[in-house]
Fold this sequence. Notes:
3-stranded antiparallel β-sheet, Arc Repressor Mutant, subunit A, alpha+beta
Amino acid sequence: MSDEAEALAQLFRALSDPNRLRLLSALEDGERCVHELVKAMEMTQPAVSQQLRLLRDLGVVRGRRQGRHVYYSLQDEHVRAVYATALSHVRHVPAGRRAKR
């Protein structure tokens, strides 16, 4: 359980970043190339690529190369379910009860 707890903590740390969550949201409807994500995120290509690399290394997203372009998508339905469940929870909890930092 110790290894699983550490892996879960790594996943939650990765998902605690608003930009990474915005990437997941952008990929929720399907595969997108890095250039599309750069435009949607209003971030530089190196910054988006760095976030995608971290998410890919954790098994959250996957990349597919086609020619000079790399297309990213959510890794699987588990990731989609985790994201959807967390989003549902945030929408359910009244804004006044959410922790502020």
